[in-house]
Amino acid sequence: MKRQIIFFVVAMIGISLLSVCGKKTKEEIFNEDYSVCVIESTQQKNKSILTFYDDALDKVQSTEYALGSMGSWFYPPKIFDNYMYVVPQGIGNQKEKTIIFELNLQTGESRQYDMNQQAINGFCISDKYIFSVATWNNVSTITRYDKNSDKIDTLELPEIFIEFMENTPDKLMAFGIAKLESNEYTPTSYLYEIDIETLMLKEEYDITGYGISHEGAVVEGDDLYFTNTTKLGNENEELPNQTMSVFHIESKVFETIQLESYSPSQLAASDGKLFIVHCDLVTGEGKEISVYDIETQETELIQLEHNVCQIAIKSNIVYIIDNEEKLYKYTFRDDKLEFEKQINIQTTEGEDSYFYVSSFFVK
Amino acid sequence: MKKIFIRMSSILMAVAMSAVFSLTAYASTEAEYKVVSYLQKENRKGYDFDDEKVDELQEDAEAEPIRSDKTNSSISIMRSSSGTYPTRSGVILVTADKYKGLIPTGHAAIIWSSKTVVESLSNGVTTGKNDWNTTKSTCYGVAVSGTTAVQDSAAANWAYKQIGKPYNWNYLDKWTRSKFYCSQLIYAAYKDLYNIDLDTSAFGSAIHPLELVSSSKTYTIYQK
Questions:
Q1: What's the CATH superfamily of B51-223?
Q2: How many CB pairs under 8 A join A and B?
Q3: In whole angstroms, what is the distance from residue A77 CA to residue A37 CA?
């Protein structure tokens, strides 16, 4: 009897260990020798494919995750402290996912932070917190997740639609649009300054005069740069705009910088310069990038042969995806972009669902 | 014999427990989805849109001619040439894509701002990005006949303002205003504001998203 019991226990442990060890984990085979990763996703089921490429844009590996609607040109992945963060919303007509997905760029280990809100359409990361925002039933809710304690706190902003957020070490800056019946539905645009620790609203700035919608922002020192993608027309319609603004956070002064092309959307900063993408993110059309020198305040307009939907910069290498499933690699030198290589990044032929290239990130 | 029996029972029990453990580890994500789907189906009060009829509607939608959109004025970012993906507030977006859950064949939304749509999901009325031309394999942009662009924008705001309204699982009840499903939300906006009935007779009092395309009160301005 004793022998049988021992045999039973050993058999159970052995079979359990075999089933666990037999589970092939993505982290076990992750190859960290890559430079750029493209995300392909679908809204029809929970599945996304991450394909990793090296410096030569040769494919290194690909991984799959059971998460749908992962990433977007509108809210591309963010890199913070050697981690990539991205929003997967889930199935397109449910948006049931409530998480922000984190990927360790070195090890491939992943983690999901449950923000407890569906249909997240904006997020940002600080060393201590993860922030997300979603608008339900005319109320925008900003959620703050403490990475150390896993505690969640929220701030509600009624009757405002928060487009996206950016953060400094101690402030959360949120961009919002309102269309109130009392104002005959005239769109108005706001910048909200929120204390990152207390999650209290500190200041509200009406920035309608600078632009109605804003699709990109970066913080450089004490300055928040943001694009003014559209402006208000005479009949309250949205018209393409041609400016970028800078908010000096401590002095609370706004300045506007004229650009040489329309529909400024994404902003990326590198080595004292701001790269401004000129692209209508709805149609994916726009073939220009402005390069703004922060010190000299001079702007160069670079015209390319293809659309520019999202860019990412690593040292002086500029990666771009267009709306035709291509990835481009350029070297930025003497205020010019020198073409290096382009590849086709569609890998989902044969899949039974409709996949699309949602976004990409660099290591 | 007894010893063999006990030994075999022990082995079988160990295998069964390991299988359960492994399946749970592998299938946790799928299980979460399947539980949600089961609950939604139970709440649907027994109404399903007939697949054959939906396919017919899609054929009708694909056959609709593409017409020019209405504009606010002669000067507008909203290009009025036929077949351009819409960004005008108040334009209705419909997809025939098959999703799991909710209305299984299709979805509808209304453009609120150039970059943002309003849609009804299982947790209520929310916003999304106006990126249906990229993220969906089928997409129709539809405008309502007999309204101005300003009126369409007001309809989008009406939809946006449905505060605290849950999802309407009873697809046959298009008259309730205490809860909405996706196509019913858009139907309600135009019915309540302008007494324009966007429903057709395809599914009785239920409104499938594709009915918003085939309705005699709308016309197609974009198709993917």
A1: endopeptidase domain like (from Nostoc punctiforme) (3.90.1720.10)
A2: 191
A3: 10
